[in-house]
Amino acid sequence: MTTRRDGPPGPRTTKPGFARGPYRRGPAQNQRGAASVAAASGDHVVLYGWHPVAQALANEGRKLHRLLATENAMARLTEEIGTLRIDPEMVRPSAINALLGPDAVHQGLYLEADPLPGPDLDDLGDDVLLLALDQITDPHNVGAIVRTAAAFGVAGIITTARHSPNATGVLAKSASGGLEHVPLIVVRNLSDALVDLGKRGFTRIGLDSDADTALDSIGPKRPAVIVLGAEGKGLRQRTRDNCDVLARIPFSGEIRSINVSNAAAITLYALSPRG
């Protein structure tokens, strides 16, 4: 389908920016700057904001390395989660701003962790629903798709090693914790992956605004993979050729093209069983 781009803090428990009890005092005056995040974290991913960090802390499969938290955020973590799997560094908000930049909505939380391993396609069951992303590069869009996929019980999201954003930073924030529930399955070639899924009996449904088939005429199918095209370009020709059906969302208004993350949400709802 052709697309276009488009908590309340916890109570105070200590003086601002300093830790008591088991918490380590963090680098409140750290001014390394956002450009140094990648160098500081090495192969780690960076998660920030309440939902991404809280969900990662609750995920035993996620290896944690460093947690920075403001006083209010730490109080909220303690109240809602209890004992943490990692000792946090208590910092002032400016320390996290220095790492992420002033525009990042971090809600007082910054976490460095290992990326989550993705399963092989062969490891997935034969009665599941998957998403496949054909070179969608906007991390906001991919993150929003991950969040929606988690809400609809999608078993995995297929992405390519190239022309895809990493599961860190903005993508993780937009996913709002969804990365802990929907694995990303990275493949070298999307068309080859679709061929393999077709041999296993998956119905391969490509979204295309010019398709003859209306989405609501397809109905729920399992196993199935929904293929979403890149912003502005839609599905590549070889990707289209390896879909069993191309479907369009039957819009009734004057605008016939929407953001790919919105299209994903509509499609997942339309292809989900009722009752």
UniProtKB/TrEMBL annotation:
Record key words, sorted: Methyltransferase, Transferase
Residue span(s) of domain RNA 2-O ribose methyltransferase substrate binding: 46-119
EC number per UniProt: 2.1.1.185
Region (Disordered): 1-31
The protein's enzyme class: transferase
Keyword Transferase (UniProt): yes
Gene3D superfamilies given in the database record: 3.30.1330.30, 3.40.1280.10
GO biological-process terms attached to the record: methylation
Pfam families found in the cross-reference section: SpoU_methylase (PF00588), SpoU_sub_bind (PF08032)
GO molecular function, one term: methyltransferase activity
NCBIfam families documented for this protein: rRNA_methyl_3
Name of this protein: 23S rRNA (Guanosine2251-2'-O)-methyltransferase
